[in-house]
Amino acid sequence: MSISRRLFLSVVLLAGLLVIGTQAAGLAANYRASVERQKRHVETAAASLAWVLSQSHTTPAQWQTLATDLQRHGGYALVRIQEHYTGRMIEAGQLSEAPARADGSLQQGRASQIVATRTFRSADGTYVGSVAVYNPVIPILEAPFLTESVAQLVLIVAGLLIWYSYMSRLHDRLQRGPLKRLAHNLAHIGQAGVDPKLAEGLPRELQPLGTALVQSHQRVHDQLRQQRARIDALENETYHDPVTRLPNRKFFNESLRRAVQRDGGVDGHLLIFRQRDMAEINRQMKREATDQWLRLACAQLSKTIKEQAGAGAVLVRINGSDFAALLPGLPSPRAAVLAERLRRELRVLRLPLRTHGWCRWAMVLTPYTVGEQVSDILARLDHALMRAEIAESDEVEPAFSQTGNRIDGEYGWQDILTRALEQHRFFLTLYPRQDAEGQVLHTEAQLTLRDQDSPEPLHAQLFMPPAARLGLSADCDIQAIRMSMDQLVARDGDMVVRVSLPSLEQAHFLKRLEDVLRDRPEQAGHLIIEIDAHGLVDYFHNVQALCEIAARTGVRVGVRRLSEQFAALERLHQLPLAYLKIGGSFVQGITRSPGNQQLADTVIQVARTLDIPAYAEDAEEPVARELLQAIGFRLMQETDNADFLAPRHNWIADLPAAPAAAEDNGDTAAHAPTRTRATDGRPWPPHELGMQRKRQEQSDRRLAEVARALEAQRQVHALLSHELRTPAATISAAAQSLEIILAGSGQEVDSRLARIRRAVTRMIELMNQVLSPERLRRDQALTLRPEPIELGELARDTVEGMRLDTAHPLVLNAEAAVPAWCDPLLTALVLRNLIHNAVKYSPADQPVHIDVGLSYGAHGATAWVAVTDHGPGISDDESQRIFEEHYRRAAHRETPGSGLGLHLARQICQSQDGTLTVQTQLGQGARFVMTLPTPGQAYTDGGNAQAANT
Q1: Do 352 and 478 lie in a common domain?
Q2: Which helix (H) or strand (E) element contains residue 351?
Q3: Which residues partner with 787 through β-bridges?
Q4: Domain Histidine kinase spans what residues (predicted)?
Q5: Is the pLDDT of residue 139 over 70?
Q6: Disulfide: which of 104, 269, 529, 780 matches 327 by Cβ 3.0-4.6 Å?
Q7: Which domain covers residue 374, as residue numbers?
Q8: What is the pLDDT of residues 703-745, one digit of tens each?
Q9: Angle, CA of 645, 649 and 651, to the nearest 5°
Q10: How big, in percent rounded to 5, are the helix, strand and coil portions of the chain?
């Protein structure tokens, strides 16, 4: 039941209760009036009878008649006359119960009685008595009153029923009419369904409500319109680029995610192109002009994409210089055709730059399939963009699915490249090249990286694009040149090394390159630096500076991929070049294109003018090979001669398995205490006494200076011990916390944390042992603490500690038991230094051999450790100078180091009665041998020394 009906019903009930109450009150009042009339009637009868008895001379016999007449005619229940003197009582009638009190008040019993009493005295005074009239209360209501009450009750009930019926129909009418209209318009407030003339059709009482509702609707409608406009503006800003009005990166990510969803997705292609010179354009042009150029270019490209790929394709601006075309449902042939058309349009839309020619675009096209991960697609595109940028070409770079390990993002590449540069994880892959007659032309060296997270080595085509983007290409190119010159020490012929064009733009690269080449003039004469032809157009001044350095150092410069940038032909005569090279699709299609043949003939003419050879590679068809040779090109192909890659002689195999044991050659005499001047008891001469005092004073001053210097050194050592422990402990605690927090985050994170923990633990152990308070108090920071050890176990622990942080294979060959008498901490430092040097100066694909054994001689056994590498080797005149303090070989100035490692290592070995020697051959590697005494030999030497002192 509705609230209104409940209200109506409550009103009806309340009115009914009021009517019933009123009628009940009326009936009660009528009853009381009837009782009062009956009482007055009884009292009147009693008074009348008493008056009659008082005025007349009646006898008691007549009293009976009077009482009977009064009882019968009055209808009373009992009339009693009582004479006081004689006690005579005359009664007429009969009571149903005992009478009430004599005072005439009503008495309550089974029936209420009315009693009226009066006294009388006869006229002659003969009789004195009382008259009592009894009558029961008869609840008699008057008929008119009852009729009126019933009529009123019927009218009121009928009125209430009529009112309730009327109000119910009025309520239904309001609900079906005005209230329904009000509810309808209220439900559509702010929408188009509100009647502006709503108030006119409502009752007068509801018209203000209708007017207020229409006004509220108008306000809400205006607010909604403003909010909708604001929301549209925010969505427009959120999903669209403010300059070009193209969808932005957020829209692109959501669209690509929907495109690869398994439900409703469809295979397609994704084309990304990047404006590589956007920063230069912004510097050269005003912002308004740049924005206008971008809007016009994007409008034209969008039109082309819609026409060729359909309405589902969309052009997106990912960021300031990157654009993407999402092409759902477009097959590969049509996607390639569209990409080529966009490439031609972008070439037309290029802007001239002050620095180098025209602005450049890099384009990448990749397919995607339903269910493929978005991160895989973006990583594939990112790496392909790197390749397209370093290629210096506007050709569309395809990006296919990668089957090997994928490296996500610049942060992953930065970690790999930084670790490779620090841990010397590079090596060279050599590709000998020969001409059609089988004559070896040169060897092309390609830098290769061995990473711990990749099962296969990473070639330069993979890591040089991210290195160029991260600004590390110069360091990688320097490594390639240094390792190529190391190879030239042991090999004949020329070696070609490619230098990336981004390296030429980096500061100090050319200076570093010149220093490396000047330090090794013999090898520089056999080195050829190869650059892309795009560099002659885009980086001509840098290439010119490179050629000037090459001319001063004897290095030659070659140009490759000339067929991809024929605009470089006009610059060739300004540079001292060694050769020109063409290849790729230009060579493969030369038989079918007269234009290509004409261009090839032009290249030959330019090469003959410059008196340099012209090479052609990638010529697989016999017809193309004959045509190229007829034009004048020398065909270049890989050689099948595997012996060409082998070094001249494996000198390491000729070395003895163990060094000879130390012989007694009088070296012990050098350690014997020197004898002072002996005296025969004669006094010193007087003039010598004065000189002696002066010498004594000078000695005291020098001793005081030495004491002060030792105290200062002790304080410095204590300060270092204190100040280094705090950050080391902080790093160690932070590394442990990170291991707990990032547990299970991935193998890459876990390996980095483990590397930090190992390095910090090694540093803390070194400080605890070398910079301990006991050693510092006794000035024994590097004082030996020899003890018998198992040298093979020490070498095994050292190698295992270094194996995780190096890409070189560490091959340990230790005899079963090799006892030695030495300080284990300092000996491990020497061995670590030798292994680190072997890793630093040898290619990452060559093993480092650590051999441990015993050799026997005339004075017993000698323990030894040999570390052998396959690096460039050491010349004879430098084989001893490398142990000098702060000595650095000029040929390896680019290799980090201070020149103290080998010097300290030899001193530590000699202080343990051992030796540190080197066996080397230039271009073939080096073998460092550390010898140590055995426990028995140490005890014997110690006893002999004690006997000699006594």
Answers
A1: no
A2: none
A3: 822
A4: 719-936
A5: no
A6: 269
A7: 241-398
A8: 777 666 666 665 555 555 555 666 766 677 677 667 666 666 5
A9: 130
A10: 55, 15, 30
Distance, in Å, from the CA atom of 286 to the CA atom of 578, rounded to the nearest integer, reads 43
Domain shared by 113 and 184, yes or no:
no
- Residue-wise pLDDT for 59-78, tens only, equals 777 888 888 888 888 778 88
Mean pLDDT of 744-748: 59
What's the mean pLDDT when you consider all of the chain? 78
Q: Quickly count: other Cβ atoms within 10 Å of residue 298's Cβ.
A: 20
Of 867, 868, 871, the residue nearest 842 (C-alpha): 871
**C-alpha of 762 from chain center:** 32
Q: What is the DSSP string of 821-841?
A: EE-HHHHHHHHHHHHHHHHHT
Mean pLDDT, to the nearest integer, of 881-903?
Answer: 72
CATH number at residue 619: 3.20.20.450
Find the DSSP H helices in 497-579: 501-505, 509-519, 521-524, 534-538, 540-553
Residue 692 neighbours by CB distance under 10 Å: 12
C-alpha 629: how far from chain center? 57
Tally of structural domains, the chain: 6
| CA pair distance 44, 1, nearest whole angstrom | 62
426 assigned to some structural domain: no
- Segment holding 259, helix H or strand E: helix 249-259
Residue 519 and residue 614 in one domain: yes
For 881-902, b/e burial (b = at least 16 CB within 10 A) is ebbeeeeebebbeeeeeeeebb
Give residue-wise pLDDT tens across range 648-678. 455 555 555 556 554 444 343 333 333 333 3
Residue 587 backbone phi and psi in degrees, to 5: -70, -40
Task: Note the pLDDT tens digit of each residue in 29-62.
Answer: 877 887 888 788 888 888 888 888 887 777 777 8
pTM of the model: 0.59
Q: How far is CA 583 from each of CA 42, 323, 462, 532, 562, rounded to the nearest angstrom?
A: 152, 30, 21, 12, 8
Within 8 A by CB and 6+ apart from 469, the residues are 386, 389, 410
Joined together, the tokens standing for residue 69 give 């007449």
Does any domain span residue 862?
Answer: yes
Q: Which residue type does 349 have?
A: L
**Angle of CA points 538, 543, 544, to nearest 5°:** 120
Tell me: the pLDDT tens digits for 406-456? 455 566 778 888 888 888 889 999 989 988 888 888 999 999 998 877 778
Instruction: State residue 206's pLDDT score.
Output: 67
Examine the domain organization and report whether 312 and 439 are in the same domain.
Answer: no
The encoded tokens of residue 874 equal 């050491």
Q: For 849, which DSSP code?
A: E
Confidence of residue 193 (pLDDT cuts 50, 70, 90): low
Section 148-165 average pLDDT: 81
Question: Which tens digits make up the pLDDT trace of 481-515?
Answer: 999 988 888 788 899 999 998 898 887 899 999 98
How far from 159 is each of 170, 172, 504, CA to CA, in Å? 16, 20, 109
Give the total residue count for the chain.
950
Long-range Cβ pairs for the range 920-923 (8 Å, 24+):
920/873, 920/874, 920/879, 921/651, 921/873, 922/489, 922/490, 922/872, 922/873, 922/874, 922/875, 922/876, 923/486, 923/489, 923/490, 923/491, 923/647, 923/648, 923/872, 923/873
220 and 278 fall within a common domain:
no
- CB-based contacts of 590, cutoff 8 Å, min separation 6: 596, 597, 600, 624, 627, 628
Residues 227 and 343 in one domain: no
CA distance 439 to 455: 36
**CATH no. for residue 878?**
3.30.565.10
In 875-934, DSSP assigns E strands to: 915-921, 925-933
Among residues 836, 846, 842, the alpha carbon closest in space to that of 809 is found at 846
CA angle 511, 514, 519 (to 5 degrees): 130
Task: Please check whether residue 267 is in contact with residue 336, taking contact to mean a CB–CB distance below 8 angstroms.
Answer: no
* The pLDDT of residue 296: 92
